[in-house]
Design a protein that fits this description.
Length: 391
């Protein structure tokens, strides 16, 4: 493990908060980048100190780090390069969703689950299928409907007439990436059947616990504009998701590219014809997870994460703040983002970059704030602007 950095703005390894390494450029809609952009009309839940220095300004009297103590970038290794190449492979099938692919990679590195929110037709299902193909992972899709039963997801005991015994038939949850399509359209009983799988990585049926494959994550989708006939996820289940990623409509140039590909015969059901091929595997993920665990975090940054989380609990617009589970999620995702960016240490900008996707689904607006049209991301942006940044 490299020693702690003496400055978060080292001239050789400066981090901008939203840009991926030059191997994989970020887009304007990158959720990690949006977290560093102040909202247009931030809600004044807290007030920033007047004498606070800019985030990227180093102390004037700080001595330069010695060669021995200066943190160095992560050495180029096959696991990291393979994961960066995944973005290019997914881009052969999906246009303009690089930020979401980055978020999915961070979730896999942290072993967490992802809630994807976007209107129908923005390639949520295609993205998950392309990602699993590029990573050589198994994936299964479940369409959540009002009549879906828990056993349809986890599996159930089936009577075998040949052996005159009950045998367990695995459900679609026994996979590496489970796509829970429109998860808010199924009743709470079926939604709750995923809790054990998401938290314990196992399924218990008839008193017997059965482990799930490794790796295992749930990529759940929901429609942000249609709520009739839906069952909103309870806070306890929302808190189980590591990240909530929004998938916006593509820009004009990106939509033209989508139409051009279809005009040239692109078939979203045939990823092989689109040229999507495996460029990484479970062994690369395992090696990457071990490397992420070694990323250094300064004590000042631990305090910074706690200060952000505690500020959400006292914000006037929130009736529900972030729990300690959210603080640990923010820490782990910041470490994964730092490693993907080529560093062995976490900076304050890493924490800022992951704050919105990591915290936006763990807070609840007060009814009066909702009536005033206040958005969760605006309140979180105001909090990020007010919490002092460590130097």
């Amino acid at each position: 493990m490299s020693s702690q950095p003496n400055s978060y703005t080292d001239s050789n390894n400066q981090y901008t908060g939203g840009a991926m390494p030059q191997h994989a450029p970020a887009t304007q809609d990158d959720p990690m980048k949006q977290a560093n952009q102040a909202p247009h009309n931030p809600v004044p839940d807290t007030q920033a100190p007047h004498n606070q220095a800019p985030d990227n300004q180093a102390p004037h009297n700080q001595a330069p780090a010695s060669d021995e103590s200066r943190p160095r970038p992560v050495a180029e290794d096959p696991a990291r390069q393979s994961l960066l190449n995944v973005r290019a492979e997914v881009g052969k099938a999906v246009v303009g969703q690089d930020p979401t692919v980055t978020g999915m990679l961070i979730a896999l590195l942290c072993g967490g689950h992802v809630l994807l929110e976007g209107v129908p037709g923005v390639a949520k299902t295609l993205l998950v299928r392309a990602l699993s193909t590029a990573l050589s992972l198994d994936t299964k899709r479940v369409q959540f409907t009002p009549d879906l039963m828990p056993g349809d997801v986890t599996g159930s005991l089936v009577y075998d007439s040949h052996s005159s015994e009950f045998t367990f038939r695995e459900g679609p949850v026994f996979t590496n990436i489970m796509l829970a399509d429109e998860i808010n359209r199924t009743p709470p009983k079926t939604q709750a059947s995923l809790l054990e799988a998401m938290e314990e990585r196992q399924v218990s049926v008839d008193g017997v616990s059965r482990p799930l494959p490794v790796p295992f994550i749930v990529a759940a989708t929901q429609n942000p504009v249609e709520y009739e006939g839906t069952y909103p996820l309870p806070e306890a289940q929302l808190d189980r998701f590591l990240l909530k990623l929004t998938m916006p409509l593509p820009g004009r140039s990106e939509e033209i590219e989508v139409i051009r590909r279809h005009a040239n015969g692109f078939d979203p059901r045939d990823l092989a014809a689109a040229g999507v091929r495996p460029v990484a595997g479970a062994s690369d993920l395992s090696s990457a997870q071990a490397a992420v665990a070694q990323v250094a975090v300064a004590p000042e940054l631990l305090s910074y994460i706690v200060d952000i989380v505690r500020a959400t609990r006292s914000a006037p617009s929130f009736q529900l703040g972030v729990s300690p589970r959210g603080a640990t999620a923010l820490l782990n995702t910041a470490k994964a983002w730092a490693w993907l960016s080529g560093r062995t240490f976490v900076t304050p900008d890493d924490v800022k970059a992951l704050s919105l996707p990591c915290l936006r689904h763990r807070v609840g607006l007060r009814p009066e704030a909702q009536m005033d049209g206040i958005q969760v991301d605006d309140v979180l942006g105001s909090i990020l602007a007010s919490v002092p940044v460590p130097r």
